Amino acid sequence: MNTRMADNVREALEQMIVTGEFADGERLDEIRLAERFHVSRTPLREAFQMLAASGLVELVPRRGAFVRHPAFHEMIEMFEVMAELEAVCGRLAARRIPPDVLEQVRATVIACEAAAHAGDSDGYYRENEHFHQLIYTASGNDFLAQESQRLHKRLQPFRRMQLRVRGRMIQSLTEHRQILTALETGDSETAEAVLRDHVAVQGGKFNDLMASYKQSNLRANPQLVAMRG
Amino acid sequence: MNTRMADNVREALEQMIVTGEFADGERLDEIRLAERFHVSRTPLREAFQMLAASGLVELVPRRGAFVRHPAFHEMIEMFEVMAELEAVCGRLAARRIPPDVLEQVRATVIACEAAAHAGDSDGYYRENEHFHQLIYTASGNDFLAQESQRLHKRLQPFRRMQLRVRGRMIQSLTEHRQILTALETGDSETAEAVLRDHVAVQGGKFNDLMASYKQSNLRANPQLVAMRG
DNA sequence: GTCAAACGTTTTGTATACAAGAATTCGATT
DNA sequence: AATCGAATTCTTGTATACAAAACGTTTGAC
Questions:
Q1: Residues from chain A contacting residue B78 (CB–CB below 8 Å)
Q2: What is the pLDDT of residues A164-192, one digit of tens each?
Q3: Is A77 an interface residue toward B (CB < 8 Å)?
Q4: Are the C-beta atoms of residues A52 and A62 closer than 8 Å to each other?
């Protein structure tokens, strides 16, 4: 629980948006939401500002705040950028990673494998998040780590759509191993290439993601997408 | 002039911050600024939110809004990310650029050279901006273009510090030519490599930038940087 | 002289009031 | 029946009021 109500409201709304409680283009009613959260319009509007900054809603002057789910092609674009950012993190990390962080990566890869074999999907998810977080940090560039983390978080609701298939999970573990080895041997080219492919949406992943997207509550409204020319 | 006062105030404050009118860590006084801009605290606080989202100020709960100039090493990190983003844009653009955009790049490179030879530094600056903007767009990834543009804008006040030296300008023009050729021939590796080096702060550029940074009004307060552990 | 506690002042965060701009309704006209 | 426009209702943007938290200062104890 935060000291500022505006922050609490932002978190609550963020959760509601990424779990698909609002349709794309839906207007966030200030008065209704203010009543629901037992706050006035002031902190609510501050929350809107923050949500707009992270791209979850669009603020249209004199019209209101509208939730904004990415179109499929926009999501693919975001994953492409994520893949490139992680590739850069990997390349830099291979050269810069300190021994203690490398040890943490090693431990996380092992924990990830253990969770996978135990069928502990929550554990797997958590360790996988940690793995990527560590790669960001290992880049030795705090700004890069921060930006990567930001996009990672934004893609979180869509990443859940991926990796459900059993075969993908095994491939993912193999790639973790490859990345670890590349970091251990300082092989920046391999770290870069494997991380890019690890994150990129391509081949079979593309079709899986598309199928999941179509079924999800986070679809964009084609009508509205057409107007964003 | 914008319809919302909050937006006007944000623009004005942004300008004041990037021109160094506030010292690092200085608190933005709501009451004083409200009087100065002839608005109430409400739109002013909305402006603070937006500035915080773009990293120009830090919002500390129950304390206020404090301007945040990057430390030198933070600035270097941002340039490193910018170089990598532009490198990615270049790689993708070499494969995806449409003929009409390629033509625009060609025209911009020529205009840039003309401005340089004419000693028209404002013209040079404008055409150079346009050149980079085109590379972002040419990537064919709107999200990447948008993120690149965002960081580009954030680095604008610091980029002015670079490129003042005459030799740098000539080198820069040569690199533009190399990038154009790479795009024309679809040589993604070269486009990527040249763009990375074009933007990266390395070699002599590092020292020039450091010297300018030290003299500028956009320095971070070392006391405060130390506390950001 | 140093430290700390209590008081008063300043400043932030939130609620509320109000004006101007959008949206909607409903009737008039073609 | 469809369309235009005026009147009404809603909604946003901004000002202002007020409570609670942070800050500074004075006072007092050791």
A1: 143
A2: 667 788 899 999 999 999 999 999 999 99
A3: yes
A4: no
Chain A interface disruption, residue of B2, B45, B49, B151, most A CBs within 10 A: B49
Q: Domain ranges in chain B? A: 5-67, 72-215
| pLDDT bucket at B165, cuts 50 / 70 / 90 | low
pLDDT (0 to 100) of residue B134 = 98
Residue A19: CA count within 13 A, CB half-sphere = 7
Domain with residues A72-215, CATH architecture: Up-down Bundle (1.20)
Neighbours of A214 (CB within 10 A): 9
Are A80 and B3 inside 8 Å of each other by CB?
A: no
Q: Is the minimum distance from the CB of A4 to strand C below 7 Å? A: yes
Which of B4, B78, B81, B82 is the mutation pick for testing A, counting most A CBs within 10 A? B81
Q: Please tell me the distance from the alpha carbon of residue A95 to that of residue B196, in angstroms, as a whole number.
A: 18
- pLDDT (mean) for B156-180: 86
Here the tokens at position B89 are 């844009």
Spatial contact of A49 and A59, defined as CB atoms under 8 Å apart: yes
Cα distances from A162 to residues A56, A120, A201, A205, in angstroms, run 21, 17, 9, 7
Residue A160: the pLDDT is 80
- Give the three-class secondary structure for A35: helix
**What is the interface pTM, i.e. ipTM, of the complex?**
0.95
For residue B73, CA distances in Å to A98, B80, B86, B150, B201 come to 19, 10, 20, 20, 11
Residue A61 scores a pLDDT above 70: yes
User: Could you say which architecture CATH assigns to the domain A5-67?
Assistant: Orthogonal Bundle (1.10)
